[in-house]
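Annex B. Sample input.
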Amino acid sequence: MTTPEQADLAHYYAQRAQSYESVYDKPERQADLAQLRQQVAETMRGHDVLELACGTGYWTAQFAASANSVLATDISPELLDIAKAKHLPADKVQFALADVFHLPSDFSQRGFSACFAGFWWSHLKRQDQAGFLADLRAKLGAGSLLVMIDNCYVEGSSSPIARTDLEGNTYQLRSLQDGRRIEVVKNFPSDSTLRKKLGPAVRDIRILRMEYFWMLSCRLK
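Annex B, continued. Sample output.
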């Protein structure tokens, strides 16, 4: 069952659908983004990719040409509509409505060789991370490639941290178009934290740490 926090997060991104990609316009982040786009496209080369929380399809578009095939999923119909409007190659890219926390059981039969999750890990509570990795392993199988990219916290560029809970999760305040302000889980793990959390479930961890973003690739055990 989707929690109220997860529902709020989905609602927030649905409301921001039309303006979401403006986050990629910040001038100070352009050098990092150029490097990240290149690295993601190369890492996904030749893979049959399951993309989680694809949003507006910004990152789908970055590796669609190099991947063998892509199934890009998201929980928001509004975001998927924007992603579909990018008119990515229909013979390679498909879109599907899916909840990351409740992935369809038939995904295990789709033959995915890789999973890509852009800016998703930071929204996952620390206490839910092991379960997420276990479910992903059940759907993709051992040896599958997992690639994640996410934000680094940079004072003055990132939204301020509003609070930290007892489990160590950090939160930011986000404003909705309906006037509400909600707390959104937004964690900023160090390289050592990533290795410690993922280590029991994956192997061959590689981390690229930039000023504004990080990228992690590994193989599911």
